[in-house]
Design goal:
The structure holds two protein chains of two kinds. Chain A has a single domain, classed as OB fold (Dihydrolipoamide Acetyltransferase, E2P) (Beta Barrel). In chain A, 19% of the residues lie in helices and 38% in strands. Chain A contains three helices and eleven strands. Chain A is elongated. In chain A, 24% of the residues are buried. Chain B folds into five domains: 143 residues, Four Helix Bundle (Hemerythrin (Met), subunit A) (Up-down Bundle), CATH 1.20.120; 85 residues; 182 residues, Heat Shock Protein 90 (2-Layer Sandwich); 136 residues, CheA-289, Domain 4 (OB fold (Dihydrolipoamide Acetyltransferase, E2P), Beta Barrel), CATH 2.40.50.180; 118 residues, 3-Layer(aba) Sandwich (Rossmann fold). Helices cover 51% and strands 21% of the residues of chain B. Chain B has a six-stranded mixed beta sheet with strand order 10-14-15-13-12-11. A five-stranded mixed beta sheet of chain B has the order 2-4-5-7-6, covered by helices on one side. Chain B has a five-stranded mixed beta sheet with strand order 16-8-9-19-18. The chains are: A alpha+beta, B alpha/beta. Chains A and B meet through strand 4, strand 5, strand 7 and strand 11 of A and helix 8, helix 16, strand 17, strand 18 and strand 19 of B.
């Protein structure tokens, strides 16, 4: 009788251990697949999400030195610890009102490979994790030329958040100025 | 020109051929040589030779060249295939591999190829020893242990960091001034303290404070000296002696003179003069073209020289010397000189200027026309210095190094070209000026003087603003107006207060530049404008001033471009038209070597051509049948069908009868050239002297 009541303790412990790891892995996987971190920035009531992986740092507004003959969305250059970086103002590209930036504005330095720019924003709200399955396509009707700058949109507690695609943004020809053209120069 | 990426492509191609050579040689050792096996080895050696020349690995090319010769002897039966010969060829293969490894590592070549070349010429290894030793002992590791390789970018980062330290020192100095400012405040407070005890305590506090401030000042000065010292050292890491480029010149010029049947005495002084790597890289093609021009166009044949009462050998002298932060380089030849009349005639013929316009130019000014793109007094294209390409390269690279140039020539006596380049691009002295509320920097080397003028001294002549300076009339541009892109109307915007005019000298021409204020000279560190601003009109870069605020650096060459007279505008239009034409050009590149193909394709595509690749003569004919092309660039030695055969076939076919053909090859003899011309090619470029300029200019000239 007593023998039939014996438990195979090592086997049960192994099983419990396996179950525990299994549950951990499942939890991890579900988190990894479903969420992306965004840096939430805003112009007035309009909120935008920048993929956090491409954001390098947030700066208080330094002196922006004007560069002659540049379009409105490139207001100038700044000194980023000894390196010259151009500033990009998204407002003209997104058809938003673009007044003079105040001291409260911020620069968000974003980079993808060798491409780097300092995005001018009115305010930075902070980081926010967005579940990927909640991202919706942009509603029809906003199909102006800027539409391919967005991954989509999401409605969170604080309202509508438009998710920018920084890789595509940095690859936009409007953001790169080559007035002399690469043809005709000898150096590669 | 940055050839690194081509070296990488070449390395991949070369590895395959080295493997083929090695396997083929070992197979022959076992089973004797078949004709096909030898052919395969010959092709590999030949391809290695040609490709190595393309990427400037001349030593490697030399070894491959002699291997090829030895293999040809074997093929022709002039030499027996013995185990010793196979050993020798294997040693040579090892040597090529070692050279390749060094080239890939980017170090200077230190394998001694002389004993290997000697052995290949003799057809046998001297004895157990020197040649193998040369191939093996100097493996790349030895060189690398003695020095460390650092990329220019990393040195820049180091210098950037030190620049920031120097800025922090300025901030510290400011804090000290603030602390010192507290001392009078303490004194005032001390006067109010009546209680002896308090007075005494405060007095002690004050003297400690004063002592600490003084010590802090000393420490800051010390820190500043050290930071500056380290900064200088970081900058010096980028310096290399001129000898690193002139040694190559000596051989290539000697070869060139020989090809042209001329006698040459080429001398260099100032080889020890040190320049920044980037400057060296930019002036190397400039100097090479100037020197090639001197030998090709300047120096006469020995017979002509003797008739003219000169020694039979022509003298070309390159002299370099320091001039403050600049290097003066003079290239002088005692050849026939440049004839202004011929230059004028050629300029009219090429449509660069009208007959009226050239007539108005002084002889001195006419000389500078040879710097214009597309200029040449020659009719037949050679691969040497042909269509004035050389001096065009000089011009574009000179703009990049912010250098200056003067050209003087006397018919029958020779030509002298003086280049003045900064020894480093990373730091220079500039004049800080204000225009339109922004601060800009003008490189000091272009500045003659700064004038303070009353508004009445600015005049209008023929609708253009000018100023008078010591009997000379100098055209005037307004920096603010130029930069904003708004052209001033002479009448309503003439200044009303005293103005500052910076008088500039560029290629011996004066130009006045109107600024709001000139703030003074300063040493500045040059920064690139970052990934987003690839190139800007009138701006060549940026720097950081005192408080770390960016300031833009003015491109003086661009200012002159903006103030071009009508002929200048026409030249620019002509150049633009040329480029537009280039975009329409479709070019077929035929070459069995991937290094050559890739290099030619990249060069042409970078300059707007639409390039299609063919890997053999048959492939080329197939592609020609299905598409229309404006030009074909072909190699000669290819398996199956040679470039000459291909050219003949192209000429025979109705639809391609008029297709211009450029032959690019490592075959350099006069006989080969003749065969090329007979086959119907329009131009012939030898890989040994191959560079972008020659290929591009030849393509441009041949595509209407």
């Amino acid at each position: 009788m007593s023998e039939s009541r014996t438990y195979d303790i090592p086997r049960i412990l192994d099983q419990m251990r396996a179950d525990y790891w299994q549950s951990l892995e499942t939890a991890e996987q579900s988190e990894q697949v479903e969420q992306t971190d965004y840096m939430v920035v805003a112009f007035g009531p309009q909120r935008f999400g920048l993929p956090a992986a491409t954001c390098r740092e947030v700066l208080k507004l330094p002196r922006i030195v004007k560069v002659p003959r540049l379009p409105r969305h490139l207001p100038g250059i700044i000194n980023l610890r000894g390196e010259i970086v151009a500033v990009t103002d998204l407002r003209p590209l997104l058809h938003l009102d673009a007044g003079e930036p105040t001291a409260a504005f911020r620069l968000v330095v974003i980079a993808d490979g060798a491409q780097k720019t300092a995005l001018l924003v009115e305010r930075v709200e902070g980081l926010c994790a967005v579940a990927d399955h909640t991202v919706e396509a942009l509603a029809e009707g906003v199909t102006h030329e800027a539409v391919d700058l967005f991954r989509g949109k999401v409605d969170d507690a604080a309202g509508l958040l438009m998710l920018l695609d920084t890789k595509r943004l940095l690859a936009r020809p409007e953001l790169v100025i080559d007035q002399k053209g690469t043809a005709g120069t000898m150096a590669e | 020109m940055n050839k690194n990426k081509y070296v990488e492509i070449f390395a991949r191609e070369a590895e395959e051929h080295l493997e083929l050579l090695r396997q083929g040689l070992l197979a022959m050792e076992k089973g004797g040589a078949s004709g096909e096996q030898l052919n395969q080895l010959l092709r590999s050696a030949h391809t290695l030779k040609g490709s190595a020349r393309m990427v400037d690995l001349l030593e490697l090319a030399t070894v491959a060249h002699h291997m090829e010769d030895l293999l040809k002897e074997l093929q022709g039966g002039g030499r027996e295939l013995s185990p010793a010969v196979i050993d020798l060829l294997l040693v040579a293969t090892d040597a090529i591999e070692a050279l390749l490894a060094q080239a890939s590592a980017g170090g200077t070549l230190s394998v001694n190829v002389a004993p290997i070349v000697e052995a290949l010429q003799a057809g046998s290894l001297p004895e157990q020893g020197s040649a193998q030793a040369a191939a093996k002992a100097d493996s790349p590791g030895v060189e690398r242990r003695r020095s460390v390789r650092a990329s220019v970018e990393r040195l820049d980062q180091l210098a950037n960091g030190m620049g920031e330290v120097l800025l922090s020192r300025q901030a510290l100095a400011e804090r000290q001034r603030q602390l010192r400012g507290l001392i009078p405040v303490m004194d005032a407070f001390l006067g109010q303290l009546h209680k002896t005890e308090n007075h005494q305590q405060m007095k002690e506090l004050r003297s400690s404070f004063v002592r600490i401030v003084s010590e802090l000042e000393q420490d800051t000065v010390h820190l500043g000296y050290q930071a500056e010292d380290i900064y200088q050292r970081a900058m010096e890491l980028r310096l290399l002696p001129l000898a690193t480029i002139t040694e190559d010149f000596e051989r290539s010029l000697r070869d060139l003179a020989r090809t042209l049947g001329k006698e040459l005495d080429f001398t260099v002084t100032g080889k020890e003069v040190e320049l920044d790597r980037t400057v060296l890289d930019l002036i190397k093609p400039m100097l090479l073209h100037v020197l090639n021009n001197a030998v090709d166009h300047g120096i006469e044949t020995p017979e002509t020289r003797l008739q003219g009462g000169k020694p039979s050998f022509g003298r070309v002298h390159l002299a370099a010397q320091y001039e403050g932060a600049f290097i003066q380089i003079v290239v002088r030849d005692d050849g026939q000189g440049i004839d202004p009349a011929r230059v004028r005639a050629a300029a009219v013929k090429r449509g660069l200027l009208s007959a009226d316009e050239v007539a108005r130019l002084s002889d001195e000014a006419a000389l500078y026309l040879v710097l214009q793109p597309g200029f040449s007094t020659r009719e037949f294209i050679t691969d040497v210095s042909g269509r004035g390409v050389g001096l065009d390269v000089v011009k574009s690279n000179l703009d990049q190094v912010k250098g200056n140039l003067t050209l003087t020539s006397k018919i029958g006596q020779g030509t002298e070209l003086r280049l003045r380049v900064p020894s480093s691009l990373a730091i220079f002295t500039g004049l800080v000026v204000e225009a339109d509320d922004e601060t800009y920097v003008i490189p000091q080397q272009y500045i003659v003087e700064i004038l303070r003028l009353a508004p009445t001294e600015v005049r209008t002549e023929l609708g253009r603003e000018v100023v008078r300076l010591r009997e000379r009339t100098i055209p005037l541009v307004s920096l603010a107006a130029l930069l904003s892109g708004v052209s001033r109307t002479a009448e309503n915007e003439l200044p009303t207060e005293r103005v500052s005019v910076v008088v500039l000298n560029f290629r011996d021409q004066l130009l006045g530049c109107l600024v709001d204020r000139a703030l003074g000279l300063q040493d500045v560190v040059v920064k690139t404008l970052g990934s987003q601003l690839k190139s800007l009109d009138y701006i060549s870069g940026a720097t950081l001033l005192g408080a770390g605020t960016p300031a833009l650096i003015i491109s003086v060459a661009d200012l002159y471009g903006a103030r071009q007279t009508t002929e200048g505008t026409r030249l620019r239009e002509a150049h633009a038209a040329q480029q537009a034409k280039a975009r329409r050009g479709r070019v077929l590149v035929v070459d069995d070597s991937i290094t050559t193909r890739t290099m030619e394709k990249n060069i042409l595509e970078t300059h707007g051509y639409d390039v299609t690749i063919a890997v053999s003569g048959f492939d080329a004919l197939e592609k020609l049948a299905g598409n229309s092309f404006d030009l074909m660039v072909s190699d000669v030695e290819m398996p199956g069908m040679t470039g000459f055969e291909l050219t003949k076939k192209v000429r025979e076919r109705e639809e391609t009868r008029n297709l211009p053909v450029i032959i690019v090859t490592s075959l350099a003899s006069a006989d080969d050239r003749r065969r090329g011309m007979e086959a119907g090619a329009q131009a012939y470029i030898v890989k040994g002297t191959f560079d972008q300029g020659t290929l591009l200019e030849t393509v441009e000239t041949l595509i209407d």
